[in-house]
């Protein structure tokens, strides 16, 4: 199989699995237990917390471990005060947009921050948001579908100067570009393990002391009282190792991915009828989303699957609905073209030969001989 869906999930790195295995077998103690067996696991969790904090330039005490990015995003939105205004970008992942919609049903005013045809939040949109004066704003750092990177540091400064809390979902950016919490200037940031060759079932919310969060789960004092429940020790330790490797190999991975992406886009543009979305914007080095005139994206996905190539038609958390992507709709992409969308998200083990094989097959499917 040729796997081109790394924005959905990544294979676990062998070195990460090796770090996890002892905590799945030998060191199985509860990290809240006071005896030596438990203290060993607690120490390993503390080390993982330090590894992840080091990757993102935060303090270990600023991390709250969660079950993944979705939970961390939901936790971030608990920072809003009763009846306060909320603003989110129109291209957020459903783990932000759906809880935001729920808050609107509960009486909060909700504003969608628009984007331009390249999927970028503009200064004009931020100016409108400042006039709206929400209590909390959430704008993702890099989009999971198009790969478009937002100028979060610039906008966070303007918003915080007006006393507005700022959250960013950095799940897709982590491990692909430099992501430093303090340099972004946000109050909260979401990250996830399984997007950086770590295990599924583990993420984190990074927060500062200006934020007043409300626990989603009650019944224990874990994670500073914000996340009750026995920690998923093996996954946390795997996340820590994955973070350490991501930091050490970031430049090498990014260069490899960008080389592959450039080759992919060169070959895609030679196929008639293909439009690469947000091509003019700064994007993640691994992500290309395109549409093909007259094609159905999900049908094409299934044909590629039959040939042993795994791609996506958009977000893995929102696919299969038969509707055009809300992200592409927000960018003004015509509905029929949006329905043809295919997303390629490359990983560190992909090769030029795989790109060539894929594009040759794609051309044969789009232009039958």
The count of DSSP E runs of length 2 or more, i.e. the number of strands, is 12
- Examine the secondary-structure arrangement and name the CATH architecture of the largest domain: 3-Layer(aba) Sandwich
The assigned structural class equals: alpha/beta
CATH uppermost class of the largest domain = Alpha Beta
- Span between termini: 24 Å
How much helical structure, as a percent, in the residues? 25-40%
Mean pLDDT: 95
Number of helices: 12
- Tell me, what's the shape? globular
Number of domains: 2
Low-confidence stretches: none
- Major sheet, described briefly? 7 strands, mixed
Report strand %: 5-15%
Q: What radius of gyration results from the CA coordinates?
A: 21 Å
* Secondary-structure element series: EHHEHEHEHEHEHEEHEEHEHHEH
CATH superfamily of the largest domain: Type I PLP-dependent aspartate aminotransferase-like (Major domain)
CATH topology of the largest domain: Aspartate Aminotransferase, domain 2
Strand adjacency order, main sheet? 2-8-7-6-5-3-4
Write the layout of secondary structure elements.
Layout: E1 2-3, H1 14-20, H2 36-56, E2 63-66, H3 69-76, E3 86-89, H4 94-105, E4 110-113, H5 123-132, E5 136-138, H6 152-161, E6 165-169, H7 181-184, E7 188-192, E8 203-207, H8 233-268, E9 274-276, E10 287-292, H9 297-306, E11 309-310, H10 326-330, H11 335-339, E12 342-345, H12 352-366
Parallel strand pairs: 1-11, 3-4, 3-5, 5-6, 6-7
Antiparallel strand pairs: 2-8, 7-8, 9-10, 10-12
């Amino acid at each position: 199989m040729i796997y081109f869906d790394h924005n959905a999930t990544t294979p676990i790195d062998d070195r990460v699995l090796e770090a996890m295995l002892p905590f799945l077998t030998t060191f199985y103690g509860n990290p809240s237990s006071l005896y030596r067996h438990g203290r060993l696991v607690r120490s390993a969790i503390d080390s993982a917390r330090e590894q992840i904090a080091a990757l993102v330039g935060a303090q270990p005490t600023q991390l709250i471990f969660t079950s993944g990015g979705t939970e961390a995003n939901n936790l971030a939105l608990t920072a809003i005060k009763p009846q306060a205004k909320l603003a989110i970008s129109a291209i957020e992942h459903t783990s932000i947009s759906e809880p935001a919609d729920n808050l609107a049903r509960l009486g909060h005013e909700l504003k969608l921050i628009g984007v331009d045809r390249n999927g970028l939040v503009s200064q004009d949109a931020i100016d409108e948001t400042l006039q709206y004066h929400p209590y909390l704003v959430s704008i993702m750092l890099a989009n999971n579908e198009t790969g478009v990177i937002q100028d979060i540091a610039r906008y966070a400064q303007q918003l915080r100067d007006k006393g507005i809390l700022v959250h960013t979902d950095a799940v897709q950016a982590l491990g692909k570009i430099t992501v430093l919490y303090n340099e972004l200037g946000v109050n909260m940031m979401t990250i996830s393990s399984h997007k950086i060759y770590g295990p599924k079932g583990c993420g984190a919310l990074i927060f500062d002391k200006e934020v007043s969060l409300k626990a989603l789960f009650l019944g224990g004092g874990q994670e500073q009282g914000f996340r009750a429940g026995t920690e998923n020790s093996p996954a946390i330790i795997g996340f820590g190792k994955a973070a350490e490797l991501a930091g050490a190999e970031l430049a090498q991975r990014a260069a490899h991915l960008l080389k592959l992406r450039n080759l992919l886009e060169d070959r895609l543009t030679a196929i008639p009828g293909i439009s690469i979305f947000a091509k003019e914007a700064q994007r993640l080095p691994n992500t290309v989303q395109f549409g093909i005139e007259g094609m159905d994206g999900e049908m094409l996905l299934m044909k590629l699957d039959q040939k042993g190539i795994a791609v996506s038609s958009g977000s893995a958390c929102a696919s299969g609905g038969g509707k055009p992507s809300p992200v592409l709709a927000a960018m003004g992409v015509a509905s029929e073209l949006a329905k043809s969308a295919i997303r390629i998200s490359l990983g560190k083990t992909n090769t030029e030969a795989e790109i060539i094989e894929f594009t040759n097959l794609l051309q044969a499917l789009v232009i039958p001989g």
